Amino acid sequence: MYLFRIVSRVLFALAFLAAAHVSSAAAEERPNIIFLLGDDLRWDAMRHAGNPIIETPALDRLAADGVSFTNSYVTTSICMVSRATFFTGQYESAHKIHDFATPFAPEAFARTYPMLLRAAGYHTGFIGKWGIGGELPEKDFDFFEGFPGQGHYYDPEDKDEKGPHLTARMGDHALAFLEAAPADKPFLLSVSFKAPHVQDQDPRQFIPDHNLAHLYASDTIPAPRKGDQAYFEALPEFMHTTILRERWEKRFATEAMYQESVKNYYRLVTGIDRVVGRIREALEARGVAGNTVIVLTGDNGMFLGEMGFAGKWFMHEESIRVPLLIHDPRLPDERRNRKLDAVALNIDIAPTLLSLAGLPAPEAMQGRDLAPWLRGEAPPWRSEWYYEHHYIRDRVPGIPATEGVHTGRWKYIRYPDSEPLIEELYDMHADPHELVNLAKDPAHADTLEQLRARWAAWRDAVQKTGPEWSEPR
Questions:
Q1: In the prediction, which pLDDT does 239 show?
Q2: What are 355-409's pLDDT values in tens digits?
């Protein structure tokens, strides 16, 4: 680990020299940046996204003050892979963080957005779930309150759970960072929530702040659109024994379990909302709200009973679609309170954060800069993208590997380890809820063959970085 520190600091110095074109005058004008990441946060778990039950006033205000990308997705739906993607701007096949144990190589860590921003003069902080293997990088941030693994909503030593909830504690840490941030430097604060992820191994699963237990008590959560047993029975046989079904039995198997689990999921999201409100109040009190960009998204979606599942991992919309809110207070009023349908991916976050700070993205990053969309521009944009999920292939066979291509109109999914090969094909315009699998329909044989070819091209392309990387044509 000592060698890692030495190599990292050499690379930081090189990164700083590469960013030295930023003048001191420009540095004074660079925005502060706050990146907020929810865990298992679905795109529709907010009032402004059309959810009529959940209470998210701070998130709704954030959306009204900024831009919401309504077609925001992750390229791999599992926490550590997706978090590595947020840091690096790379697909799973490029950054190769396939499991919970693998750390960043020193040269890869030096090219992550927080290290590049720190090398360019930003005061950096990290709070919450680190999510990547290896030792915690406490000395590589100016302020660090991260934790390994999943963490605990309540301190395990606090048997009566009288102390503060983890989400509230993370809010306290965020305010402490803002209070101590030097006035003569821009800051970057990354807050990676555990919420609304379950507490693994705890029979309660979703454990919200006890102070929010009264919320939604009188509400009735509608049944999931694809919650009928018939949807589960129509799935390929191998899906009947996955971990997703096992976890459904723990959370959603009865109506009472479903109501309690989803309400607690909503309470956890409302806990995040309370922290966002506190952060924005602190920015106003400190006088820096007008120069602080706030970005909020999720590391993956979440099945809440759809198709008889709980969890994520597969390529269906509930699993891969996440919110993406970007509030840049420097934009004029006419550029705010907008919903954009351009496809945004988690590979885009790192290059976008660097762009907002006036820094170029390294060649190794495979994502695109979203900042032009914020300014009201409509740059040439992606018409399709690739999905991959390879974790657990050799570890836990209960979650099959998944790959596929999403073109907007069509979604093609394949399970590469299945024998015979199992595929899914959906017309997302005619069937946005993925109710009818057209893969075996002779009328769509040509479309299926075309998407197989696109899948093969993407599979080969995403393994390349730097000058060799380009989206397949």
A1: 85
A2: 999 999 999 999 999 999 999 999 999 999 999 998 754 555 578 899 999 999 9
Helix (H) or strand (E) holding 264: helix 255-286
Query: What's the chain's length in residues?
Result: 473
> Residue 331 contacts by C-beta under 8 Å, 6 or more apart in sequence?
66, 374, 375
- Closest C-alpha among 205, 199, 313, 201 to residue 251: 205
| 426, two tokens | 């959906």
| b/e per residue 431-440 (b: at least 16 CB within 10 A) | eeebeebbbe
Do the beta carbons of residue 360 and residue 113 sit within 8 Å?
A: no
pLDDT in the model for residue 7: 44
* Kind plus residue range of the DSSP H or E element containing 338: strand 338-345
C-alpha to C-alpha distances, 455 to 139, 373, 450, 470, nearest whole angstrom: 41, 27, 9, 15
pLDDT digits (tens, 9 = 90+) for 303-342: 999 999 999 999 999 999 999 999 999 999 999 999 999 9
In this prediction, residue 277 carries a pLDDT of: 98
* Residues of the chain predicted below pLDDT 70: 1-28, 392-397
* Torsion angle in degrees (nearest 10) through CA of 124, 57, 373, 286: -40
- Report in angstroms the alpha-carbon separations of 150 from 27, 249, 262, 270, 422: 36, 21, 20, 19, 33
Residue 386 — φ and ψ, nearest 5°?
-110, 145
Cross-strand partners of 345: 73
pTM: 0.92
CA distance linking residue 373 with residue 80, whole number of Å: 28
DSSP string, 164-196: --HHHHHHHHHHHHHHHS-TTS-EEEEEE--TT
Residue for token digits 């999720």?
Answer: 298
Nearest CA among 250, 391, 386, 241 for reference residue 313: 391
Residue 151 DSSP code = -
